[in-house]
Batch of 2 targets.
Target 1
Amino acid sequence: MKNKVDCHPHIPVLLDETVSQLITKLDGVYVDCTVGFGGHAIEILSNIDRNGKLIGFDYDPYALEYSKTRLEKLNSNFELFLSNYSEIKKNLKLLNIDNVDGILFDLGISSYQVDSGYKGLSYQVDSPLDMQLSLRAGANLRDILHNSTELEIANIIYKYGEERGSRRIAKSISKYVKKNKMETNRDLVESIKEIVPDRFLNKTLSRVFQAFRIKVNNELDNMVNAINDAIDILKPEGRLAVITFHSIEDRLIKNIFRDFSNGKESIVREMGFNFPRKCKKIVRRITKKPICPTWDQIKANKRCRSAKLRIVEKI
Ligand SMILES: C[S@@+](CC[C@H](N)C(=O)[O-])C[C@H]1O[C@@H](n2cnc3c(N)ncnc32)[C@H](O)[C@@H]1O
């Protein structure tokens, strides 16, 4: 399998491991729900034949445009949608496609989106408190921080960031809000810096920023619904591959896959999520344990160290 990591804004993670397992039919239809800068998408397109097709989604217009230019050079059969992947079924309908052979989710955000300070995702770049990645208007981070109680803020940080100091951090954030000093990323960083020792600061900041990003974008509900839709639209023997980057996401994917391979709901509902339709035994797990990056891959790209790949096949 060819490797095309070159020097694009994002290094694709577990590239060969994912694409080699995802493609089961050279003339199949494949969906990349998180096209980003096209690392996986281009690999999929390069490994299917002229009768195969790739459909891609991303809600970041810059990344999608970049990928379009990249994919066009292959002159292949693809369609890209500037869209939330929660609209996967609706968008496939527009193309008169009901079922597909493989679907990929490479969850989270790309390194470029963080480093460039896009939408205020980075704690290292100052910008207004935003983090809204979806195209539909909702509440940005400033509104959430200004309209939530201290306890609600603590719960967000604990639930989505797994940060044990959530209560102390929420207290400091609320103090800044009350003093009208919570408008930018720098304000948020200052409020956390005030109570967290320097040696823990970066880890804490990345957990808190992750938690707020997940909350602002309703990421986990979107993901659970989209994974359900994805399983629904796979053809028999079609495969679904999901790459996660943190433990909450991975736990959810692991349990959703387990439930659809056993035909009964277990703890996903207890974790506070709903299956939109009855859970039947409709997949078999290709990976019982997740596939993780090798030491060499981690050495070459430190950011991939927490990646986990899980794959199921529709029965
Ligand atoms: C980790 S990156 C994917 C990188 C890509 N596989 C590559 O090789 O360049 C995740 C991408 O998913 C997009 N994304 C995250 N959640 C999304 C959602 N709900 N709908 C559409 N795109 C989403 C982000 O904008 C980001 O570009």
Target 2
Amino acid sequence: MRRTMSTPLPKAPALELESSLGRSCDVLSAPDASSFASYPASWYFFGPSSSVQKPGGSPVSRQLAGERVVVYRGADGVLRALDAHCCHMGADLAGGEVEGNCICCPFHGWQYDGDGRCVMVPSGAPPPFARQGVHPVVERDGCIFVFRGSSLQAFPLPTFSALPREGLVPGRPFRFDGPWPWYVTFANGFDIQHMTCVHDRKLLGEPIVEELGFHGRRLRYRTEVCGRSLADRALRAFVGTEVDVTIDFWGGTMAWVIARFRHATSYVLITFDPRDNDTTHLQLVPFQRNTLWNRSPIGRLSLELRRLLTISFLRHDLDDLGEVIYRPGTLVEADRNLIQAYRWLADLPAVEPESTG
Ligand code: FES
């Protein structure tokens, strides 16, 4: 059951913090940086379906939550995801080939099925240790997602809070690295104050945060587009001045954004993947309704335009902020939503390997 958890906030344990001026302020305490998992157990965006399109085609590997994962499509068209580094001598299976529904290592030809079992070693019988880790993989709306963590940590793949009847088609992902830890990058979405200073948005009414169970939070707010940039002027001229935003945040790794303007609705997925303590790899995937028109060349062009407008919006964070340092003791009453977000993120479990016992 959902519970509105902020604005107004329920009574929660509070701390008296001394500010640098010696005044005390009653704020929720934000967790220490050591409380956050290095890699949250969650769903990670692997890439568009087109990156692993053809049954039996070339496998592809990517870094996800600190490990390399290979995804391939068997001859039956089904996707499989395994640890990319071969358990023999560590070669990347993405350099190998798909044979039937198995993947073959490029180095010495060991062959693994979709359950990670080694089913063939050219030089003899597979040794007992010969096994690859397996990861849940889901393909939806033209995108591939991989869960990193044990089966005990798994939860269903989330999606947008509302979906059009026709479903969605994705546009080209936009990838960039943010020079901030994953929890700072992710919690930025809850920092409503920065909408005014960084993005030239005027907040209309109070933002609302709801719990979506243990792994999710929903943020809703309404803003007015006030900026003088070309992108903002185009928005006001063609789709409207005010926008209702609903963002479903999941697992520390995904933000499903719906922005409803008067004359258009925009769907964007933003994904987060920690690269090290200070860097987060972000991917932005725009979507639009899966109609005949939207699949036409002109429809694809309009999706490209939405992509550019969204990049232009997020660019302000990248270009204007520089290094953002997590200092829990400096957060103030106006940062309440942000502090709540940090407390939630600190509770999220770290990736655990699947138990083989
Ligand atoms: S490293 Fe893969 S078979 Fe040897």
